[in-house]
Amino acid sequence: MALQQTLKALADPTRREILNMLKKGRLSAGEISEHFSVSAPSISRQLSVLKEADLIRDTREGKFIFYEINTSVLEETLLWIADLKGDDNNDEKE
Hints:
alpha+beta; Arc Repressor Mutant, subunit A; 6 helices
């Protein structure tokens, strides 16, 4: 897992909002762009960063590209954070 890329991708509020949108189901780039008041090329760049971090997947259907969330990378990141946090119960017993 490229944790650095994942954390970088998650650091941006626009990218986090895109992920929130995709958790409800797959969307086309146009549908995602309609939600924001920035240019389509800007959203395209945000999607590229998310894709490079493997947080989303894309599928081409005709002239459209549909995006969907890849939860496995998020799960790996959460496991790493939980491991970093440690087990608080063991600390209290010592």
